[in-house]
Amino acid sequence: MKLNRKQQPEFKNIENINIPVPEKINLDNGIETYIINAGTQEIIKIDIIFNAGSWYQEKPLIATIVNEMLIEGTKSLTSQQIAEKLDYYGAFIHPNPTKDFGNITLYTLKKYLPETIKILNDIIKHPIFPEYELKTFLSKRKQQFQIELEKVTNIARREFNEQLFGENHPYGKKTELKDYDLVNRKDVIQFHKRLYHSENCKIIMSGKIDDSDIKLLNQYLGNKDWSIKTEAKSLNFGITSQPKMESFVEKENVTQSAIRLGGIIINKDHPDYHKLNVVNTILGGYFGSRLMKTIREEKGYTYGISSVLVSLKHAGYLVILSEVGANVAKNAITDVITEIKKLREEQVSQKELDLVKNYMLGDMLRSFDGPFEISASFINIMDLGLDTNYYDKAIEAIRTITPDEIILIANKYLQEDTLIKTIAGKYN
Amino acid sequence: MIKFEKFTLKNGLKVIVHHDPSTTLVAFNILYNVGARDENPEKTGFAHLFEHLMFEGSINIPSYDEPLQLAGGENNAFTTNDITNYYITLPRENIETAFWLESDRMSGLDFSEQKLEIQKNVVIEEFNQRYLNQPYGDTSLLLKPLAYKVHPYRWPTIGKEISHIKNASLDDVKDFFNHHYAPNNAILSIAGNVTTNEIEQLAKKWFGPIEKQEIALRNIPQEPKQNESRTQTVKRNVPFDAIYKAFHMSSKMENEYYVTDLISDVLSNGKSSRLYQNLVKNKKLFSDINAYITGDIDAGLFIVTGKLMNNVKMEDAEKAINEELNQITTGNIDDYEIEKVKNKFESVYQFGQINALNKAMDLAYHELLGDADRINHEVEKYRSVTKKEIITVASSLFSKKNSSTLYYLSKK
C-alpha cells in the first residue's frame, strides 16, 4: 500500500488521565505532609512551604532575605560548612521566596537522605543570619538588582504591578535601591521567628520513598521543638490603585521595548477559572496561540509573546507580555487588542477548539509525568487550599467547553478597553 | 544505566530505542549532525535560522505544529555549535504522528520567500532579545572571535551579525537543506513504553523511503595553538565592570575533556567552590563569578566570567582570578575536593535521568560522539580522573599565552 503522507495517522483522543492523589499524613507535631512515591531513580525531593512571602513583611526585602539566607549559617554550622556538606553529598537546597510563600526545597540522593535532612532541619530551625553574611549578601544583591533594572522586561513588570495593585500593596510595591541600605538584622531574625515554625508550613515529599524515609522526616521535622503557639497575624490589604490606563517608562538605546497588558481577574478557586484558562490558552497560552500566530508568525514583531493567568493567594491577574522591536511596540499593542476583541466577537472554529483541547489534555499528561512533575502540580493548587479534584474539574472543563461558552467567558472577563498597558523602552 | 537497542535503516538513519515503562508519554528526539560550525563564515547564523524554517510546513504537511497539538503533543528544538536537535513529547499511543511529521520534513520543506522573510524577522528579534538588548548580552559576540581566529566556533549560533540573517536568500536555505538534512546525517532516539520491534516497523514505514543524500564534506579548519595572550577592552552602558577570560581546551573526544570539566567544578560548581568562597564571600571582589567549559565537540573553551563589585579595580580582580587558577596549577588541591566534585557529577547525572526526554537526547548525542553507550560510562570516566591529571592539564590550560581576556567596562 502506498504511504499517504498527506493524511495524519490515526490518533487517539486522550481518554484516561491518571491524577495521582498524594498520601496525606500528619507528622508527630501535626504538620500536614503529602507523600508522592513515584519514579525510577533513587532520588528524593522535599518541599517545605511556609506562609512567609513578602505579603507578610513589614519592611522591604525581609521575606526574601530570610528565605534565601537560611543556608548562610546556623548555631552549629557556618555558611561555608553548609555549602561544603551539601556539595559533598551532591545535594541541593533551593530557596524560593514568592509574594505569598517562603519555599525551601531539598533535592538529594536517597542514600544520603540521613545526612542531608539533618542539614535541612538545621537551617530551618536554627539559622542565625550572621551580620557579616548579611552584609555580603546585601551588597551582592544590590549590584545584581541594578543590573536587573537595565532590562526592559523588568522595568515593565515593576511598573505594571504597581499600576495593577497600587504602590502600597504587597503585590504592587516596587523594591528600590535604597531599600538594600535600610535592612536591619533584627527584623530578619524576628521575621524568621514569627513565621518559620511548624504551625505555619506544609511539607511535600516526592521521589522514591519508603517507610524509613518518612520516619527520618518525622524524626527531624516532625519534632515538637519548633512549634510556636501564636497564630501568624493575617494581614489584609485592599487594592487601592487608581491605575493609569497607559504608562510608559522610557529607556534610551534599546532595540526592543517590553510591553505588558492586563488586569485583575479571577483566581484558581473561582468556578469559571477552568474555562477562562481554555480561553487564555487560545489567546496566548501555547506555541500555536493566536497572539503567537499574529505577532510572531505573521508580523515577525517578536521572538515570543504569551498571555498568562497569574493566581496569587489574595488576587489573580491576567498579563500579556512580550519584548518587541522598539519601532513596532504600538503596532504590537494594537494587534493584541484586536485579538482580544476577536475572541469576544467571533466564534472560535471547532477545529481550533479541538486542537486546543487536545493540546491542553496532553499538557495535563505532561504535568503528571514523573514524581517532581506531580509534586509541582500539587504544590500549584495547595496554596489556595484546593484538592486534587481541581484537576478533574479542569479536565472536565476542557472536554466540555463549547464555542458559545468561549464567547461568553471572553466577554465576561476580557474587555480590551479596561486593560492596563505598560511599555518600557521606546514608544512612538 | 540506560539500556537501549539500536539499528540502522538502509538509508543510513540510526535509530535508538530506550524502553521506559514508567511513563505514559513518549519522547521522540531527532538529532541532525549539523551546527553553526558547518556554516560559511560569510553566512553565519544559518543553522539556527534553518531550525526556525523547519517549523514552517513540509512537502505534504502545511502546518507542523497543528497536527502535533491535535495529537496532544508538544515540541521544540535547539541549535548549538555542533548539532541541531528537534524533540517531541506526546501520548504514547499517538507516536505515529511524530513519525509522520518528522519524516515528511526530512524529505523536504515547503519553502517560500514569504516564510523566509518572517522567520528572518523573528530571528532578528531573538538576536535583539537575547544578545543586543540585554546588559552584558553581547559578550559571546566579542569573546569568541577573540579566542578563535580560524575555527567556526568564532561566531555564536545566533550569527556574527544581524546582516548575515537579513541577507539570507531562499537559494542559501535550499542549499543548506540539501547538504545537511538527510537520513544518513541524523540520529533518531525514542524513549517510552515502546518496543524495539514496533519502532523498527514505524521507522521503516515512514523514514525508510527517504533517500540517502550526499552530505557536505566537513572540512573545518582547526584552531592553531594560541601563542600570545590576547586582550580586548570595550565600554558599554552597564552598571558595573565585568571580566571574561577564555582558555583553549581539548575536544570532547579526549580524556582531557573530563579533567578540564572537573577543574571548572572545583573552581565554580556550587556554593562551596573556590571562586565563590574566596572571591565573592571572603575577598568581596565580585558580585557574581563563574567558571565553565563550553562543552563543544571540537576543541572548546574554558571560560571564567566575573562581575566586579563597585569599588574594585580591574587589575585587582584579574590578579585574584589568576591566583586562583594558579593554585590549581601548583597542585594546591586536596583529594577531598576532587571527590566532592565527582560526587556532585554523579548526583546531577542521576537527576538528569529522571526524565524520558533527557534520556532520549543523551542517547542521540552520545551516539553522534561514537556510541550511545558512552552515556553509561560517563560517571566512571569522571571518577577515574586523578589529581596528577588535574595539575598537568591545568598547567597548560592556564598558561598566559593560552588566554583571551575581555575587559567589559561600565561607561558610568
Secondary structure: elements and pairs:
The complex is a heterodimer of chains A (428) and B (412).
Chain A: E1 23-26, E2 32-37, E3 43-50, H1 62-69, H2 79-88, E4 92-97, E5 102-109, H3 113-125, H4 131-148, H5 152-165, H6 185-195, E6 201-207, H7 211-221, E7 246-250, E8 256-265, H8 273-284, H9 290-298, E9 302-311, E10 316-325, H10 329-345, H11 350-367, H12 371-382, H13 389-400, H14 403-413, E11 420-425
Parallel strand pairs in A: 2-6, 7-11
Antiparallel strand pairs in A: 1-2, 3-5, 3-6, 4-5, 8-10, 8-11, 9-10
Chain B: E1 5-8, E2 14-19, E3 25-32, H1 46-53, H2 65-70, E4 74-79, E5 84-91, H3 95-107, H4 113-132, H5 139-147, H6 162-166, H7 170-180, E6 186-192, H8 196-206, E7 230-236, E8 242-248, H9 256-268, H10 274-282, E9 286-293, E10 301-308, H11 314-329, H12 335-352, H13 356-368, H14 378-383, H15 387-397, E11 403-410
Parallel strand pairs in B: 2-6, 7-11
Antiparallel strand pairs in B: 1-2, 3-5, 3-6, 4-5, 8-10, 8-11, 9-10
Helix pairs in contact in B: 9-15, 11-15
Give the overall pLDDT of chain B as a whole number. 96
Shape of chain A: globular
The CATH superfamily of the largest domain in chain A is known as Metalloenzyme, LuxS/M16 peptidase-like
- Biggest sheet record of chain A: 6 strands, mixed
Q: Structurally, how many domains make up the residues of chain B?
A: 2
CATH architecture of the largest domain in chain B: 2-Layer Sandwich
- H/E topology pattern of chain A: EEEHHEEHHHHEHEEHHEEHHHHHE
Here the CATH topology of the largest domain in chain B equals Cytochrome Bc1 Complex, Chain A, domain 1
What assembly state would you assign to the polypeptide chains in this entry?
heterodimer
Count of DSSP E strands of chain B? 11
Number of domains of chain A: 2
Instruction: Specify the number of helices of chain B.
Output: 15
Q: On the 0-100 scale, what is the average pLDDT of chain A?
A: 95
- The number of helical segments of chain A is 14
Element string of chain B (H = helix, E = strand): EEEHHEEHHHHHEHEEHHEEHHHHHE
Pair with the most extensive interface? A-B, 72 and 82 residues
Helicity level of chain B: 40-55%
